[in-house]
Amino acid sequence: MTRVDPGPLLVTLALFGLGLLLAWMQIAPVLNLPADAPDRVIAFVVLEQSTLARMATALLCGAALALAGSLFQQVLRNPLASPTTLGISAGANLALVVATLWFPALIGFGRDLVALSGSALAAILVFLLGARRGFSPLTLVISGLVISLWCGGLSAVLMLLNERYLTSLSIWGAGSLSQQSWDTPIALGWKLAAIGGLSALLVRPLTLLDLGEEGARAVGLKPERLRLVAIALAVLLAALVTSAVGVIGFIGLVAPVIARLSGARRPGALLLWSTLIGAALLFFADNLLMQLTGLWPQMLPTGAFTAIFGSPLLLLLLPRLKTRHRIAEQKAAPLAPLLLARYGLLLAMALGVTILFFAVLVGRNPLGGWSLLQTDLWSEILPLRFPRILAACIAGALLATAGIILQRLTGNEMASPEVLGVSAGATLGVTLAIFFTTEPGIGFQLVYSTLGAAAVLAVVFLFALKSGLAPERVLLAGIALSAMADAIGGAIGATGDPRTIFLLRWMSGSTYAVGMETASAVTVIGIVLVSVALLVHRWLDLLPLGPSAAKALGIDIKAARLTLLLLSGCLTAAATLCVGPLTFIGLMAPHLARELGLRQARTQLLGGLVIGGGLMMLADWIGRVSVFPYEIPAGLVSALIGAPFLILMMRRRA
User: Fold this and answer.
1) Using one digit for the tens of pLDDT, what is the confidence trace for 278-301?
2) What whole-number distance in Å separates Cα of residue 106 and Cα of residue 114?
3) Does some domain include residue 531?
4) Does residue 16 contact residue 63 with C-beta atoms inside 8 Å?
5) Is residue 351 part of a domain?
6) Do 286 and 479 form a contact (C-beta atoms < 8 A)?
7) Could you give the angle at which helices 251-261 and 52-76 cross, rounded to 10 degrees?
8) pTM of the entire structure?
9) For residues 469 and 194, which has the higher predicted lDDT (pLDDT)?
10) CATH number reported for the structural domain that contains residue 450 in this entry
11) Closest CA to 475 of 78, 170, 176, 118
12) Which of 153, 290, 479, 508 lies at a CB distance of 3.0 to 4.6 Å from 633, suitable for a disulfide?
């Protein structure tokens, strides 16, 4: 007789019980309507075709995402793997956005095939990178995060260029379970049942894989083939869900973690209980959402809501989560030879000046051709062009400085304001300022964005310090908070409020509306903050040696960490005001500075801020001239260019 795991069973029953209670609160008023009530027929039609269909969809999607997450986590031996963290859902979302806007015939031909193609391409990129480092958790999550941000950035560009579809695409992209018939749950049901049956056939091979690679091979199992089949099934599950309802975050990550922490250990038990817990979790979350939002549940996407409540849940589970792999630090050899590395700072400055020349003087004429700015037009054009160039330059320098501080503070070369959620926190602060204050000026925006960035940093490091700032914990905490901040912003954006268009443009990193007042304010703030960073360069040199060594050399560890955290938060907040949250400058510039041989903190800070400023000016210039007479925001350009750059860099380092 098979023993039933009591822990996962209790969790599943508790979630289902809460979900059923909330569901009954919606169903009971309709069933209790008097027979002669004028709207009784309409209420029953809505209950049958919308409410019950939505509940069934929630159960199916939750089960599918959790099963996909469990398959990923088991075959990759990676507790951080899920359709969200590996970029699978983002790839499907981008493919569907592209098809919806430009190739609608493909949607009619096969919506699932479109989503699957996007998911497959994202998965191929992520796993090509991961294979070169043995599918290590950190590499896969970083690769997935890069792909997700890149797909999200490109989707944002497409939506900005097609504003008439903005609200509907925002709601669908954030994961909406709203239904008008049983077509979606019926179509999903038989597909997911078939894939679930195939997944059940993997229980025995997964059990053999627990013996280890060599043990599995000894009994005739081919681990590579098993991984390929399991990953293909997981990608297919995620693509089907994204095709049907959009991106639902965190279920595929949280449900397997809950199953494991509640006592499920064997592969078969993990697959079963993850699936049931995922179904119960999304069922409960969606019914809670409908209770909270009253008569208009469709206006708050379920995907945004799951991220809002899933992030704190994941953070609470984080201290109990044991990661099986740890990545040793790898120092990359500089691209430049040693002789050139001695002049890395001069080279960076030369490149920065060259980019500044192009940004100021080279552009498009009214006919669309290339032209050099004539001297007689300087008085007319420069007052319009120079403030945005200055703002882009300072913002890039600030993000680069923040990235260097975070990487040295955590000992994690992939730490940055974007990865750790600091930019998302700053964005959330500005969002609150825009929606809850009357005409917030630059001062109010700076205060709110600084508070948001500092709050995210504080929470990340509170959870990560318990594990000695282990890269996995820092990244997972950052991903969780970033997803929560983005979800809150997405939920606000899906309301249809006119301010959301302004907010989306600002979040995309456009310098179009930056005036000299804003540029001057950010410049003054930037000079002060960068000066402070240069003054504490000794801390940045000694802290990477470890707490014991740094303390022995006279560093007050707590004070130094707190100061650097606040400083990086202020740097990120000031930069976010100009170029939005979606950039890779804070990740790219420190790496490029190291590639030029700038290893000491002071020289890396100087070189990094020059490189960051130059990269952001280049991004602003490309966005201004590439699709003339239209513009692509600088923040999105830097993200679209930065993601391929980081992928190439990670492949070279593998």
Assistant:
1) 999 999 989 988 887 664 444 567
2) 7
3) yes
4) no
5) yes
6) no
7) 70
8) 0.76
9) 194
10) 1.10.3470.10
11) 78
12) 508
